[in-house]
Amino acid sequence: LTTYVFKRLLLMVPTLFGISLVLWLILLAAPGRPGGSAAAFGEQKGDIDPTKELEKDESQRLFRSQYGLDRPVFWNGWTSLSADEVGRTIDIERAPIETVGVRRKREAREQLQDWGTYAVPGLVALLSTTDGERQDAVLKWLRLNATRRVVLDDDAATLARNREIAAENAEIATFKWKPDDAAEVRRDVVAKWRTWFESHRDRWSWTGWQKVKTGLLDTQFGTYWARLLRFDLGRSYLHKRPVLEVIAERMPVTVALSLVAILIVYALAIPLGIWSAVRPYTLADRSLSVGLFLLYSLPSFFVGTVLLRALTIDDPVRWFPTSDLTSSGAADRNSWERLKDVLWHSTLPIVVMTYGGLASLSRFSRTGMLDVIRSDYVRTARAKGLDETSVVLRHAARNGMMPMITLLAGILPGLVGGSVIVEYLFNIKGMGMLVLEAINNRDYNVVIGEALIIAVLTQIGILISDVLYAVVDPRVSYR
Amino acid sequence: MTTSATTKTDPVGHGASAASYWAVVWQQLRKNTVAMAALRTLVALWALAIAAPLLASNVPLIWSGEGGALPRLPVVERLFDHSLYPSGVDQFFNLLLVALPIWLLAPRLRRGGGPRRALVLLGLVAWSLVVGLALIGSRASLFAAVAVALLGGAARFVAAGGRRRFRAGARWTLAFLLVCGLLTIVRGIRDEWPVRDWVKDAGSSSVAAVFPLVPFHPDNVGDSEALARGDPEGSRRASLSGYDLNGRDVASRLLFGTRISLTIGVVAVSIFVAIGVVLGSLAGYYGGKVDLLISRFIEVMICFPTFFLLLTIIAVFESRNIFLIMLAIGAIGWTGVARLVRGEFIRQRNLDYVTAARSLGLPQHRIIFRHVLPNCLGPVLVSASFGVASSILLESGLAFLGLGDVSAPSWGQMLTTGRSSQQWHLILSPGFAIFFVVLVFNLLGEGLRDALDPKLRR
């Protein structure tokens, strides 16, 4: 059995890889810039203030840099970006819409933003060779692209580094001219840029090996996998904390609710199934089947809404609280009262979470039981003169209920997915609520990170059910 | 389960005996009263969805006395009005409203006789009368729709003379629906009309007007004046079903919501059945590395809770378009079908008829899709029926969370407004609508499963 578990654990590795791959493909298939670049483009009238531009959509930027979405997909050749290419792109970007069209203009703009510091050498070269309005445009982009971003972390080393970056950013922010300034001012500013560029030359001089390394790693593909291998899911824009931390904080509630729901589902479904299987096709069995079938088709959000409306707002009755898992003053009560409080609060959520699984599982437990109750060994047990309870519970049920374990893998994803709706309905601060908040606030790092974590959790659940089955049923061969 | 029955009755896998297998299944299904009731309800639901503009609209059905001797039929004239029906779903259904009667009647003109043919003729005359009257005051789009209808009907009429009638019919209908869908996608059929407050005009001028049963547009287009006064009940007639918080009629929105739900179900399921069948049959037929790869992929997809993955896709794509939602559901839900088909293929691939086909030197795609696949479709049909139910649930759940397409009158979205209003009729009506449709599809799936099960054959 140990080898079986070990092998299954090994098999998890390719599946994990596959999970990450699927998420990566979703990221890849997503249209250029989440956050609606078209809208941002519409705002662009006249000159762009670089600092504002940087702050404009911080959440989107965090997301894009976390997953390297502002980089090429597989190969980053921007280390050898030529001034010509930068110049051409700037020309398209500043051309009137009528001549190049909105689409090309937007693409050029996004390209310039994506290049970031990679475009600095080209821009500096362009700055001294151009003049007039074109030079103005080059300056605008140089100021934007030369500004480095601070790293969001709070250890001492990073803070010191951030101060350095901020000081440099403040310095280069002054290297500018107004469009109607005299030629000397312009020359002066160009000279300042040149000296600044020369003194930081090493940032843009790559050896051949460095070029290959950057080319491979500073890409969407490279960034994504490098971060995943370090278990780095990025930072949440909304919570200003690492995503992993936020998720870990919300996880216990959701996991606890799901576990309780699973326990209740099994505790009710197995007896119900056995009960109706020992009296097949009677009125009781039939009405139970019909009832469960109706229950199975009832959408959980509808049931939840009706329960909330009927039982929580004093019209007609107020038996249960409307939201959350604890009362406001719960912390100062003793543990028995706290437990009662939590139970009182979680009754409705648990009901909404369980009834669907209960309906489908009871049907399976009934069929499973029906299959064995007609078999020869059950007849033998009866012939031996055993009483009916013992035949049903000790002989038939033990075998008939075995397939139920595999169903755990089937209902688990549904339960976890359903937790979003339940947590939304009852305002429970769990993982489902987290992902909803994240979607509504465009906190994409959380969305992707949570999808990953949920998939891993589900996988572990499936693994557990498989191992359990192997433990219970000796006929399963441990390959 | 179906394998044994299939291989017995259908040694080659296609041709006349294939029809007989499905005929057996059909016979079984007909004995199941519940499933047949579900099937009939389904047909009725489709009819309701298609006829929605005739049942619920603030544009009158008949309008006479305003210039010209002939009465006019504004609802039919404006079926392709972009401001009344902006969504692609509605355009598609309105096209069906014009074209489907001819499509259904045309082949019947050829077959059947006596009183039945008279009935068919009567239907055709009624259709031409209505459409002809509407065409007088109409724009190009209605002409185009009629052209589609007549062309399709003519083709169907000719095809009805051929021999393999059932198969040809199903295939033709699929092609017809595809053409209608394509016309909707390329926005070939739509035009612009000035917005008009018909209800007000009917009260003020000396005209005779007949309004639909539910005289409300689901989004109150054309009622702008009354709404602007902040008085939704102002110049309008009494609503049987009450209004929602935005002063929109509940019954009208429910009716148009039927269109959304049915489309969601069918489109999403067609997508995932297509993906599942292709991947599953490749995995099952070839085995080995192909199977390993596809099975791993299925395992990976199973790890994602469907609803969660759907949320992630919707979030990353930053779009709430109803068609994206259908596509996403289709792209997620195929694992079940793929596993079913794979299992069936593994069971069938070493049977004699496959070996025979192989030794005849038939190309592999022909063996897979023409010989083995038809024998595996039974369970797929069952899971497609359940799939429609779960797709509808997924979409409603999404809309319930406020992440659906706001422009579509989806039932889930209605339920959300009901929830925030705390009014019983706004909660119960969309809720029961979802429950009812889901139940119907589940019942049908259950009936199909029983009909396909040789153990239960009577």
Structure overview:
The complex is a heterodimer of chains A (479) and B (458). Chain A is mainly alpha-helical and 479 residues long. Chain A contains 22 helices and no strands. In chain A, helix 8 packs antiparallel against helix 9, helix 8 packs antiparallel against helix 11 and helix 15 crosses helix 17. In chain A, 32% of the residues are buried. Helix content of chain B is 70%, strand content 1%. Chains A and B meet through helix 1, helix 15, helix 16, helix 20 and helix 21 of A and helix 13, helix 14, helix 18, helix 19 and helix 20 of B.
Write the layout of secondary structure elements.
The complex is a heterodimer of chains A (479) and B (458).
Chain A (H helix, E strand, L loop, with lengths): L1 H28 L7 H7 L6 H6 L2 H9 L16 H12 L2 H4 L1 H14 L4 H10 L2 H15 L9 H18 L9 H17 L8 H10 L2 H10 L13 H35 L5 H15 L2 H12 L23 H39 L2 H8 L4 H13 L2 H24 L4 H10 L3 H29 L7
Chain B lengths: L2 H7 L6 H16 L1 H18 L1 H4 L6 E3 L9 H4 L10 H23 L4 H22 L3 H20 L5 H21 L12 H7 L3 E3 L13 H5 L21 H37 L1 H16 L2 H12 L4 H11 L2 H14 L3 H8 L4 H37 L10 H11 L2 H29 L6
Antiparallel strand pairs in B: 1-2
Give a brief outline of the structure.
Chain A is mostly helical and 479 residues long. Chain A contains 22 helices and no strands.
List keywords for this structure.
heterodimer; A: 479 residues; mainly alpha; 0% strand; B: 458 residues; two-stranded antiparallel sheet; disordered N terminus
